[in-house]
Amino acid sequence: MKRRKRSSGGASLDSLLDTMTNVVGILVILLTVTQLGVGEAVERIKEALPEITDEDMDRSGKKVEELESLLKLEKEQLQTVKDLTQQKKKANLNDQKVLIDKLKKELEKLKAIQINIVALKKQISERDEQVKSIEKTIVAKETELAEIKAKLAKTPDPGPTPDAKIVNLPNPRDAPKDAKPIEYICRGGRVIHVDIPLLQNLALKAIAQSRLVKAQEQAVDCDKLVKLFENRNVGNRDWRIRLKPAGGVPYLVLELRKGRGETSERLRKSTALFRNQIQKVNPNLFYLNFRVWSDSYDTYLVAREYTTQRGVLAGWVALDSNSEFRVPLGGNLKLTCQGYVPPPATPKAAVPDLPPPTQRKLPGNKID
Predict the structure, then answer these.
(1) Is the distance from CB of 277 to CB of 193 less than 8 angstroms?
(2) Which end of the chain has the lower number of beta carbons within 10 A, N or C?
(3) Is 255 helix (H, G, I), strand (E, B) or coil?
(4) Residue 221 to residues 128, 244, 253, 330: CA-CA distances in angstroms?
(5) Where are the alpha helices (DSSP H) in the chain?
(6) Contact in structure between 203 and 329 (CB atoms under 8 Å)
(7) Which residues pair with 254 in a beta bridge?
(8) Closest alpha carbon to 308 in 189, 168, 163
(9) Residues 248, 295: Cα–Cα separation, whole Å
(10) In Å, how far from its chain's centre is CA 123?
(11) Tens of pLDDT along 23-61?
(12) Per-residue model confidence as pLDDT tens digits over 262-309
């Protein structure tokens, strides 16, 4: 008998192991090559990208915070717009309700009104008759006026009256509130400013230097005071101050020094002191107060002409030519004359009882 051939199982197993070993080796080689390629690629990418520093990271973080803040702000604004829209809708609704209530009330008032057509027609008829009557009166007056104008046209012009003067009628009214007067004197054909408080202070200084007065309220020898002012040249370059008792009380008498003040001819010149003075007056704070003696009316009219041109308000007081320019001592002095005896009172005739006069408010400072 022939021998059986040996089984080839061992040889087949060796071939399989060799194949697997080869495959694993190839895979290891491929993995190594792949790793090497990936590393080089990463290096090349790093070299291509810019370098990121800590400052770049901080700036990026701040930028992110700013974007988050802007997003938060946008959300808040969106919510505000939504709230305003809702409030506006509510306000419009409330306004509409108020309007509806108002219209309802007006409708109720209209329903309550009852018009009497007959009475209304009667009133209209009466008014028409009144209008016709007034129209007739107007026509008659116009006809009469036309006749008067025709007569005047035929009347010859007599020409100006000799020595005629054009004056404005006064329009007395109260001075502006809180306005203060500036005093001017028109006397002897001249106009000049007078500072009464300044002259009073000069007089009080002279009295204090005389030592005749030792108290604010005192009875003094008025004759000595009169002589004091006669012997001393009290005043300034424009005014001479004298003292004169009247009714047991000493007063100051202001006398204009010779040649002081400006005449009406001088006022016509642009360099006149009066015209320069009123240019500095604030019409809202001051007004002029003229004291006009009868011998200086023409000068006063010229002064008022320039005062009106300047837009300054003014008032005036007319005085007789024999009137003295007398002012009180001023200050806190209350002096009386020693030995003054008031004249006996003249007996008055009996006056029948009359109802008390109606009280009225007296006006203040007047301008015209």
Answers:
(1) yes
(2) N
(3) strand
(4) 83, 12, 18, 18
(5) 9-48, 54-112, 117-154, 196-210, 222-231, 264-267, 273-279, 297-310
(6) yes
(7) 241
(8) 168
(9) 30
(10) 49
(11) 888 888 887 777 766 667 667 766 666 666 777 777 878
(12) 999 999 999 999 999 999 999 889 999 999 999 999 999 999 999 999
Distance of CA 225 to the CA centre of its chain: 50
Angstrom distance (rounded) from CA 189 to CA 303? 12
Please report which helix (H) or strand (E) contains residue 184, including its range: strand 180-187
> Is 228:243 a contact under the CB 8 Å cutoff?
yes
State the Cα–Cα distance between residues 6 and 9, nearest whole angstrom.
Answer: 9
Q: Running DSSP on this structure, what letter comes out for residue 269?
A: S
- Tell me the backbone φ, ψ of residue 80, rounded to 5 degrees: -60, -45
Distance CA 368, CA 167 (A): 12
User: Rounded mean pLDDT of 153-157?
Assistant: 66
H or E element that contains 350: none
Contact 258, 329 (CB under 8 A): no
DSSP 8-state code for residue 138:
H
Token code pair at residue 137: 């009166």
**Residues ≥6 apart with Cβ < 8 Å to 224:** 210, 212
Is residue 291 within 8 A of residue 186, CB to CB? The reply is yes
Task: State the amino acid at position 349 in one-letter form.
Answer: A
Between CA 278 and CA 266 the distance in angstroms is 15
Dihedral angle at the C-alpha atoms of 19, 20, 26, 31, nearest 10 degrees? 170
Packed helices 222-231 and 196-210: angle between N→C axes, nearest 10 degrees: 110
